[in-house]
Design a protein that fits this description.
72 residues; mainly alpha; 2 helices; Twin transmembrane helix small protein; transmembrane helix
Length: 72
């Protein structure tokens, strides 16, 4: 897997995370606590965030991602 594809995959995950966060805010303002859509959107955001972290850890463990320090 080339570097640009890895970058696009991470950016796609981040866009989905921000989308679900925005959906949670929207549902919070519109529904005023009457439905569970806010909780569902925030639960999806947490699940996608955990999946992204796990993919990064697996990628580092498998050698597909090379971690680097800041300013090297």
């Amino acid at each position: 897997m080339n570097d640009s594809l890895k970058t696009l995959l991470v950016i796609a995950f981040l866009i989905v995370i921000v989308w679900n966060l925005g959906a949670g805010l929207y549902y919070l303002l519109v529904d005023r606590g009457q439905t569970k859509r806010t909780v569902n959107a925030l639960t999806r955001r947490i699940a996608v965030s955990v999946a992204l972290i796990l993919l990064v850890v697996i990628g580092i463990w498998g050698g597909w991602i090379q971690p680097h320090g800041v300013g090297r």
